[in-house]
Amino acid sequence: MTNNSPAAVVEIHPPLKLHWASVGFFATIHALAMLAPWFFSWSALLVTLFLHWLFGSIGICLGYHRLLTHRSFLVPKWLEYIIATIGAFAFQGGPIFWVAGHRQHHANPENELKDPYSAQRGFWWSHMLWLFYQRPEFFDYETYHKYAPDLAKNPYYRWLDRNFLLLQIPIGLLLYVLGGWPFVIWGMFVRAVFLWHSTWLINSATHLFGYQTYEVNDGSRNLWWAAIITYGEGWHNNHHAHPNVAPAGRQWWEIDMTWWSIQLLRSLGLAKRVVMPPKSAA
Fold this sequence. Notes:
The chain is built from 13 helices and no strands. By secondary structure, it is mainly α.
């Protein structure tokens, strides 16, 4: 006698194994950033804020996110390469890795197995612990490149994906020449830590706190203070409702500094096919 009743689908969580190299790497950068009080100068602080904007807003938010991941607009290929390189300077991985992970996040938002930084696993998992327990489907190139085939077929993006860490060397040398160790400590390590946590708050805080303008199949929310430190990315519920739209804000008070940069590129004739919100969502 056979049982024809449908079997319950049970998701099996793979065992988590701590990736000690990742723990050591992030701990070292955070420790170096803690030297900042002994190397403070106002010029070093200004350099840090400028690089946080350049690498964060232009490199990550505009470049990796809205341009490469979602193709919210198009720019000439030479400019796309420049912007992607600025994104690689941000110390957040190569473009294929970053784009593939974010596309998986949107394809399966908050799924504990298929979303790399699922908020269902808790604040600290989505904020940073996912980087310490590296699952091969998210961190092995042979797997994750399949989620960004448009980038993986490009030799320059493959090069950036392999060598983004080496790009920190010329940045560090330039900072040392311009301002000595204060510029290095602040412009490299304080900037990296500040930008990491700014970006990670979009994975963690904006899936837990804030308000929802749109009904979506996940917990994404709009969080004003996260939008300020991420140049507009904190309007996360808006983004999840319409992922391929270039502006993240919908109301006049939902300030989106990255969108200002896209508008500038468009006014210069450099940004084309800019995707705007549906009229019913504007």
